[in-house]
What we know:
By secondary structure, the chain is α+β, with helices and mostly antiparallel strands. The chain contains 2 helices and 4 strands, in the order ααββββ.
Amino acid sequence: MIAIVVGTVATYILSTSVTAAVANTVTRQQRAVAAEGAMNCMEQIRSMPMELVFALFNENPSDDPDGEGTAFGPYFDVVGLSAVLDEQGQPKPIGQVLLPGDGAVLDETFEQPEFGLPRDLNGDLHILPGDCSMDYLVLPVTVRVEWRSQLGDRSLEISTLLMDLEKTDL
């Protein structure tokens, strides 16, 4: 009887350990896919001409450089990840480019501490209200990837500060 109890407990511990290891491996693989997707998006942003980044990746299709609706926009997909569901049960975009401003206007005076705003973005040494999307010299950018895993909803963010070195004295 004691041998059966010990054998059952040992089998339970072994199967729990194996299940946890498999779940951990899958979670690590998904995190690696998410990190690669975020880095690929960030490299795509960095490869664009600095003066076009805001227009190419913001939410406003009317300012797209090659005509309305031709830019990348703020959302992207990451193959291999499942979407997080919103409150209505609809899938949310897996990848998102986050820019300062309200999605259409880049204003230095907005209170957005996650981007270090208010901040002088156009290098005139003043923080003034108004749209500076046509003359910014620095642009904080965050790329966020959100996905659904076996262990629940997960997210990963990477951030950078883009600088137009051609227009600065650096």
